[in-house]
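Progress report, Aim 2. The chain analyzed during this reporting quarter is listed below.
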Amino acid sequence: MTVAVETGQWQLDRTASTVAVQHKTMWGLVTVKGSFTSVNGQGEVKPDGSVQGTIAVDAASLDTKHAKRDQHLRSADFFDAEHHPEITFAVRGAESRAGDSAQIAGELTVRGVSRPQSFTARVAHADANTVTLEAEFTVDRTDFGLVWNQLGMLRGLTTVDASLRFTRVTA
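Predicted structure tokens for the chain:
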């Protein structure tokens, strides 16, 4: 990576960060898109270059611009937000790659089910006090117990698109 990110504590800038999802429905004819309106997170870059952190989204904050669908997505058929209010990604490590990218490894937890997840993130911006990472990856919702599929309407993988801006925490 050509951009060096300083060691120390980093806090997610909630106002400048987005996490969105999209999934094919209606037998692949329609793509449902939505974004989570409440995202939190923090991270640490240690002196040895290792990275750890957590991103958490409020499962009930998913907004697809369709109230009835959003209510169903929050229900026990999907995210079960009442019993599993957060979807989390715990960063376990990051390795620099060619250009301004990094391979991120961690654990994604949805509905209380955790699975390893890795993806490539691009450093979209970095300076001494801020860094913005952008990533897109796919998830098989059935791996997390999201198996509701009336009449086989839902197909394929869910795409997650994230733009996360972190600000250096100063003492």
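The chain has a mean pLDDT of 90. The longest strand covers residues 113-126. These observations will guide the mutagenesis work planned for the next reporting period.
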